[in-house]
């Protein structure tokens, strides 16, 4: 009897808490959508019902994955947050009509990182139309801050979280406003051209031309005509009326001399004269053409070492090295790896119309990798993973072999897919239960599809009906067609 009374008291307490939670979330102007640790919908507030047109009775108690299959929404931020255990923000289309910004935040039942378990996920939903309205109203109220707002939006082009990059970007912001010459150094693939573009975009010359010159790609005999141009009749085959060089095209703007360490010594002397005089003379002409431009140079070479070896002019080095910005390699700023992965994954999935998610164990392996090719290599690897995987979950077995081999905790070879095996089943040593089940189900379906002549025969082999197979393929992101 005592146990029954205690059970009733607990039930009443839970109902009171639930009622209190509903009252609280209904006061929010944002749409709120709450799911439990299994992805079952617990609650939605009135704002969500009003902005989406979805009644809470339609979704409460339903699995978020089933609601995606039923096309209530095109994708679920809550489900992504459950898988990654990280706050996830996506563009979500609801009821096939309106787009919303959905931010799903996992709530944990423990503060211990090694033991943390997701208790629930709270998703905040905002109508993009309303956000655009607020933005336009803000511009009307504070028109003088429009440039600042654009800057905040565009800084997303340079993705970073590390203290090293924060220090660098603070320095960049200070120098961007002045026409001083800048030398950007760093290993290949670190993003020197992106940083140069940032400097131009936030300089007073941002609306003027930004000319990029790859010094390593221009043949030595064509350097002078490409950079300084030529007059009519300067040589056989010269264009009528002459041709403006790249420095002329950069007038009033910015010129980037990428890989300046490859510039021939003879051209270095002529470049030094141009920088001193702020004027050029076309080939075959004696007329000086005055110019105003900002010079940005970049290289992955040690110019000081080239100076010592007499391969680079010391006076030119001093001329271009007024402000020196060095971009550290990716292995020295590990905390930037995951944000970069997230940005490129989102961008490439949107570009190719795919839905992919990198599993936590795969992220750990990628975070520990040294990335000798830096940001360029990372972007290429993400593109490879997006287009080469047939299921939506990217696990360690999908990573390129050279990245897996560098994993500090060796992953047994038998845990990876054996393409020659008839069964082609997966080891799930590094996956949690949900990931392992998804992997196993995907592989079983793929095996049945490959060994059958039609979808219906594959469904028979799997002992499920045809419609059920199609729904499962859609949920798992499996695309398969039979050649006729």
Q: Looking across the biggest beta sheet, what order are the strands in?
A: 2-1-5-4-3
Total number of beta strands: 16
Overall 3D geometry? Answer: elongated
Largest sheet composition:
5 strands, antiparallel
Q: Report, as a whole number of angstroms, the end-to-end distance.
A: 70 Å
What proportion of the residues is helical, as a percent range?
Answer: 40-55%
SS field, number of helical segments: 21
Written description of the protein model:
Helix content is 44%, strand content 16%. About 10% of the residues have low confidence. α15 crosses α17 and α19 crosses α20. The termini are far apart. The chain contains 21 helices and 16 strands. A five-stranded antiparallel β-sheet has the order 2-1-5-4-3, with helices on both faces. With 484 residues, the protein is α/β, with parallel strands linked by helices. The longest helix has 25 residues.
In short:
With 484 residues, this protein is α/β, with parallel strands linked by helices. It is built from 21 helices and 16 strands. The longest helix has 25 residues, at 2-26.
Q: How is the secondary structure organized here?
A:
Elements: H1 2-26, E1 31-36, E2 41-44, H2 46-52, H3 56-59, H4 64-69, H5 77-84, E3 88-94, E4 98-108, E5 118-127, H6 128-141, H7 146-154, H8 163-176, E6 182-186, H9 192-201, E7 210-214, H10 223-228, E8 229-230, E9 243-244, H11 246-249, E10 254-258, H12 265-277, E11 279-281, E12 288-290, E13 294-299, H13 303-308, H14 314-320, E14 323-327, H15 337-352, E15 357-358, H16 360-368, H17 374-388, E16 393-394, H18 401-404, H19 433-450, H20 455-462, H21 466-476
Parallel strand pairs: 6-13, 6-14, 7-10, 10-13, 15-16
Antiparallel strand pairs: 1-2, 1-5, 3-4, 4-5, 8-9, 11-12
Helix pairs in contact: 8-9, 15-17, 19-20, 20-21
